[in-house]
Design goal:
This protein has 18 helices and no strands. It is mainly α. Helix 8 packs antiparallel against helix 9 and helix 11 runs antiparallel to helix 17. Pfam families: MFS_1.
Amino acid sequence: MPVQAQHRLQIIIFALVCAAFTNIYITQPVLPVLQQDFDTDLVRVSLTVSAVVLGIALANLPFGLISDRFPIKPIIAIGGTAIIVCGLICAATDSLSLLISARFVQGIFIPALTTCIVAYLSKTLPPASLNVVMGSYVSATVAGGLGGRLLGGWAFSPEHWRYAFVATSLLTAIAIFAALKGLPAHQQNKQQTTKPATSYLRLVAQWKLLRLYLCALCGFGIFSSVFNFLPFHLAEPMFGFSTQDTTLLYLVYLVGVMIGPVTGKLSNRFGSGNTLLVGSAVLLSALLMLLLPFTLAILVGLLLFCAGFFTIHAAAVGALNRKLDAGHGRANALYTLFYYVGGWVGITLSSFIYQHFGWTALITCLITLLIMPVWTGIAERKHR
């Protein structure tokens, strides 16, 4: 692929995926405001976030099937329109039940802009270009996740949270228009065969793919657990961070924006296995630094933590798609399913560990989960 065309494609993919992920976390920073506005309890208002995640988890496998059978542009158009309409409903409604329902529908259609676009890229691009463009995809997931939080709780004052939905819908519309105009027509990668699409069960039964799924599960389990309980740790007397101070630390997510394209180039040059091992080593160093009772160590540890995790994530996604001859939509849907299940399981189990045994025990348990990324990296080196 020509360099100019690849750069244009990277920009389009980044904008589209970033817009999709911006929709996911938009209510997270203003949950207390929503609780007051709708006069409800914390559990119910939290559904405005968890309903989106549930929708994504339920819809990934069906959209994996859809992406293997239909062209990408109609999928983007239909899915994007549903997300935009539901976003505007969220901005206008005075009913919390309708808000939660609209958020759930948004979650159902977000894979149209994420899982399906990965399948499209893996079927269209040669391996070298795929590595680099997938790096932009991973960077976009980071930028979108951070952008949604900042848009919901910082760009607009909390009491004007409805404006954030309008702004996000507008950004999503612009990204979809750019994708529909700029995405090249699908052309089968010459290095791919025309094998029939395989089933989910057969994909999971292949150890070369399953280890990458488990790598995603363990990696995101580590990542989500640390960031979920970091505010509690930093509120302890040894640090005494305020909520505002802790929120600023989430800007370390920006490391993930820069590390994605770099990881693609590293995988091209040194192989996915070596890249996974480097990411695992960086992540281990970060977890050890997070055990130290010093603010500077926490800051440096979080920067390394994001660099290590997103290196693993980008390398695993690239390795997965290079192994596929068919069934790209199904394979990427499974990856995303394992990814989000890892986050949910990680947070659930970590809550018990942190509550009863503290931060040190939690970090120690998370370090043991690094066995899977390391094992995967070694296996990828052998089968390069």
